[in-house]
Structures are given as structure tokens and as C-alpha cells.
Design goal:
- By secondary structure, the protein is an alpha/beta fold.
- A seven-stranded mixed β-sheet has the order 1-3-2-4-5-6-7, sandwiched between helices.
- α4 runs antiparallel to α5 and α5 packs across α7.
- The radius of gyration is 17 Å and the shape is globular.
Length: 268
């Protein structure tokens, strides 16, 4: 299939590469609050628009699944001559990272899983049912107008009203189409690797906000309980996109984790 749009930031000779994978929106732009901090810390950074979103090709494979999204990342790693990366994923992006850690463990040096999950849960299912009903009955504009309700805390939305309005306008202008959105949501809803968590050896930072309105923080706790090598970072507030709303605190946690997992092993 046609290749995806990706961007490479930071020094070409960096010791470590961090690949950033967004959530349902799929856009590389989601990671703007992290790019400067990662590059300043000396990392080479790859961000990309997921297939069917943004500047990447719109056509999706039949029976679209998280496995397809993981293969797209492997293709990007090959195209950028990246033998191994630290993988950071938000929500759906975190699912892609978990799948990669199972399918191609040698390519994943570590995982950063932000408000992600290992199996479906009834609350998120209810949220997606409501969003899809809104999309079907009222169309894309109503769908994107509701999106900030699931992403951000109410107080943050009120305080950043113009920014939220601009994001909604941008999301509407670049809406990937109802068929693509339904296929992407179906893929994330079908994802279930809960029984295989202990097979993942890569060290993981599991980050969550306890006021996430879309994905219960208990999903991150379950990831932490099931994975073999975990650093758990709970924030009391920040919402589903707390890497945006609490970027400074999140970036400190992210950089600290990357520094620890990238450090040379100390001889016994």
C-alpha cells in the first residue's frame, strides 16, 4: 500500500529514536507539546499521520485491525533505517505499541502507554456507541464538536475556549470520512491482548489521568499489573489527553523514563 506521511526531528546521529503514535485522531500534530522537549534532550523523533488520517493515504485495508497499524509502523522504521525505537502511543497509539511488542519485540526498546488498555471495557464501549450514533445521525460537524468532551477536562476546555474551537474547526476540515472513522473505531474496539501481557518484555511507562472521561484509569492499572517491567505514572487530573493539558508534568515523567531505559547497563 502507499507509504504514510512521517516526519523526522532531532539529530540524525542520536543514540535513541522515539516514535510517536497518536490516538484516534491519528495526526502527528498531537505530539507538538512533546517534540521540543524530546529533541532538546537529544532524541531523534519520528511522528506520523496514521493511515486514513491527515496527510497519509486515505484507503484502508479490508477488515482493518491494529495489526495493520503495527505493520505500518514497521514500514516507517524500515524506511527511516531505524533498527529499534522507544515507542510512545496515546490510547489507540498505545494499542499499536502493545501489538508491536508482541509481533516484533526486537524493534521495541521500550513502551510509553498513555491512557491505553489491553482489552475492551463497557464504559469506553458506551462512549464509542454514543459518538458513532452522533456521527450517523448528525454528521461529522456534530461528531468533532463533541470530541473535546472526551479529550479534555471541562475546566481546561473553558479556560482554553479559542484553542478548543480552533481544534474543532481543524478536525472538521480534515475529517477522514465516516467510513474510515468507523473502521478505526472498530479496530480499537476489537483489540484484546489481555492474556498476552506477560509475554511483553519491553520496559513500559504506563501513564494515565484519573479523570479520563473516555478510558477508565483502571485500564492502565490492569496494564501495569500484567506487564513484566512497568513504571506507573498516575496524574490526578488532565483528562484523556493529559499529555496535552498537563504537558510539563507529563514531559518530565517521559524524559525521566527514557533516560533510565536508555542508560548503559552497569556491569555486575
Amino acid at each position: 500500500m502507499p507509504s504514510l506521511h512521517y516526519e523526522v526531528h532531532g539529530p540524525a546521529d542520536a543514540a535513541a529514536t522515539v516514535l510517536l503514535s497518536s490516538g484516534l485522531g491519528g495526526s502527528a500534530g498531537f505530539w507538538q507539546p512533546q517534540l521540543g522537549a524530546l529533541v532538546a534532550a537529544g532524541h531523534r523523533v519520528i511522528a506520523y499521520d496514521q493511515r486514513g488520517t491527515g496527510r497519509s493515504p486515505a484507503a484502508l485495508p479490508d477488515a482493518y485491525a491494529i495489526e495493520h497499524m503495527a505493520q505500518d509502523v514497521l514500514d516507517i522504521l524500515d524506511a527511516t533505517k531505524t533498527s529499534q525505537c522507544h515507542f510512545a502511543g496515546h490510547a489507540l497509539g498505545g494499542l499499536v505499541g502493545l501489538q508491536l511488542a508482541l509481533d516484533a519485540p526486537s524493534r521495541i526498546a521500550s513502551l510509553v502507554l498513555i491512557n491505553a488498555w489491553s482489552r475492551p471495557n463497557p464504559h469506553s464501549a458506551r462512549c464509542f456507541d454514543a459518538r458513532l450514533a452522533l456521527l450517523g445521525a448528525c454528521g461529522p460537524r456534530a461528531y468533532v464538536e463533541a470530541q473535546p468532551i472526551f479529550l479534555y477536562p471541562a475546566a481546561w476546555c473553558a479556560e482554553h475556549a479559542q484553542r478548543v474551537a480552533d481544534e474543532v474547526d481543524h478536525a472538521f476540515a480534515h475529517f477522514p470520512g465516516e467510513a474510515n472513522m468507523r473502521a478505526r473505531i472498530a479496530a480499537l474496539r476489537a483489540f484484546d491482548i489481555d492474556a498476552r501481557l506477560a509475554d511483553i518484555a519491553a520496559p513500559a511507562l504506563v501513564a494515565a489521568a484519573k479523570d479520563d472521561a473516555l478510558v477508565p484509569w483502571t485500564c492502565s492499572q490492569r496494564l501495569a499489573d500484567g506487564l513484566r517491567d512497568v513504571t506507573l505514572d498516575f496524574m490526578p487530573h488532565g483528562g484523556h489527553a493529559h499529555s496535552v493539558t498537563e504537558a510539563e508534568a507529563f514531559n518530565r515523567s517521559l524524559l525521566d523514563f527514557l533516560s533510565r531505559v536508555s542508560a548503559p547497563a552497569v556491569p555486575a
